[in-house]
Amino acid sequence: MEKKIAIQCGRLLQPDGTYRERQTVIVEKDKITEVQDGFTAPAGCQMIDAKDRWVTPGLIESHGHLATGNDANEMAANPVRTFFSVREAINPLDSAIGKVRSGGFTTYCILPGSEALINGTGVTVKLKDAAVVDEIELTECQPLKLALGDNPKMFFGKKGISPASRMGNAAILRQALYNVKAQLTAGNFDFESPANWQSVPVAEALQGKRLAKIHCHDPRDIVTAVRISEEFGLDYTLEHVTGGRFVAEFLGKHNVRCCLGPLLMNPLKYELEAIDPLNPGMLEQAGVKFSLIQDAAWDTDTLMLPSLAGVCTAYGLSEEAAMRGLTIEAARNLHLEHRIGTVEVGKDADLAIFNGNPLLNTTKCEMTIIDGMIYDYKKEA
């Protein structure tokens, strides 16, 4: 690979979700250094001819379980598992990583499962080839995963222990948060103490230093998640929110940011009956900001996410919001918008080149670039 790359873009996605025609993006090492009008050909650059192609920032999956196999849930009896980390579950050699990358995805937030109320911390990674997860993780985004609704209710209810109800979910989650908040308020939470290591992620979330991502589908759980987050001053996003359209005004009033999805799937449990392609468009109309997610596990369902977002545009979602939901809004929901999500000078050199509109199921990603490293799928065809 040359030191500099010049990508001549027929259509280049803008931060607002629209496209600008005839642009040239200059990449040096792992950063975008210039975005120029017209098809320029700077001397000394490796040229990528995408004059008849659609170019976007690298797509972002802001919630999923990629490359974790069956290791993202512990099946333990404790509903509060603050000290678990999905890092130990991630297999960076999993072939699914390359397959998802081939769909134009460059960044992925890998989370623990949602059977408990507090499930531990996630890891956000760049989808590059690596043998060790440390080589691809973005250390500034390791969210704390919380969950409400049927998952913890059913898991513990079947064991005959609490929480076995929605009121139990909320009560025990509050108790866990209050226990740590009391120590912080009293000024006696020692982050270096071996006695506190299990509670450090919760303490950081309570101080606004760690993002909390809260699993919730049912409107009741959505409202409870917002209520608890505001009680404790959490920096948070709501995950799934498949029943969000029923409380859209509430979400808009509280300025809630959401990671919406899966967009389409079979209702494997009661609360998933709320899944409907109308949901994103109705939340857009209510002024709610959101990313779009497929919530895929070790398989490659994330590849379907752009075309499923396209399906939602037939039910009221604008194409602009759909593309923002796959790029800049996803970056914002991971607090990584300073690095990824748009093609702008100074940001990471993460791009995807498509042979058509990325929202159509007839479109193919032909090239993915991550930190300036080129993955060319035309050569593999």
Q: Explain this structure to me?
A:
By secondary structure, the protein is of the alpha/beta class. It has helices at 95-101, 150-157, 166-186, 200-206, 219-232, 248-253, 278-285, 305-313, 319-326, 328-332; strands at residues 4-13, 19-28, 31-37, 45-57, 59-64, 105-110, 118-121, 123-126, 137-138, 144-147, 212-216, 236-240, 257-260, 289-292, 351-354, 365-370, 373-376. The model has no long low-confidence stretch (mean pLDDT 95).
CA-based shape: globular
Distance between the termini: 20 Å
Going across the biggest sheet, name each strand in turn: 3-2-1-4-15-16-17
Care to count the β-strands?
17
Helix content: 10-25%
The mean pLDDT is: 95
- Poorly predicted runs are none
Report Rg.
21 Å
Biggest β-sheet: count, sense, barrel?
7 strands, mixed
Task: Indicate the structural class.
Answer: alpha/beta
Tally of individual helices = 10
Strand content: 25-35%
